[in-house]
Fold this sequence. Notes:
Elements: E1 2-6, H1 10-22, E2 26-30, H2 33-42, E3 47-50, H3 59-68, E4 75-79, H4 84-93, E5 97-100, H5 105-120, E6 127-130, E7 133-136, E8 141-144, E9 147-149, H6 153-164, H7 172-179, H8 190-202, E10 211-214, E11 218-221
Parallel strand pairs: 1-2, 1-3, 3-4, 4-5
Antiparallel strand pairs: 6-7, 7-8, 8-9, 10-11
Helix pairs in contact: 2-3, 4-8, 6-8
Amino acid sequence: MKLLIVEDEVKTGEYLRQGLSEAGFVVDLVNNGLDGYHHAMTEPYDLVILDVMLPDLDGWHILKSLRDADKTMPVLFLTARDSIEDKVKGLELGADDYLVKPFAFSELLARVRTIIRRGSQIPKDNILSIADLELDLARHRVSRAQQRINLTTKEFLLLELLISHKGEVLPRSLIASQVWDMNFDSDTNVIDVAIRRLRSKIDDNFSPKLIHTVRGMGYMLDVSE
């Protein structure tokens, strides 16, 4: 497994590279945003560990550029920015996880392995569908009415969860634990933002509408209104 670390703090970067290398990963380390952007755009990584505050180009712009270019490799933000607004922004841009400094290496390693394990457990030749929406798990592709729809990794996982439980109301707490590996915090709107972005991609220009809000309970994927 090959990882990219984009971290401008020399000691932190070397600490991460040594620890992850000893854990069995092949690790590239760069210390500025432009180099990080170039590596992520041109090399096949299984995961990018990305700081927000970087010289030349910040982490927000790097992630947005990757997602705009349909690069779906998982991204873990590792940053000192600890506000709820920053966490929401990172996840909304398409990050797969968000860990705040200072951090315990054991927690970082567990999160890295969880993110990578998700990608390796996708069954082959498995297509989930509802109405004219198709989710190809093997090729990590989504289409509706035979039109290709580009999703971030988190959006794909969220849609996979919804379509696997079509017709069922999924509470926010379940979505948080299954997609983000976190306990639900009523003060954050991460899930609502993610649903809104997913809905804009698979529902806004199509009929019938598939993603439904069940007030006070959660969300459901179903054909009926």
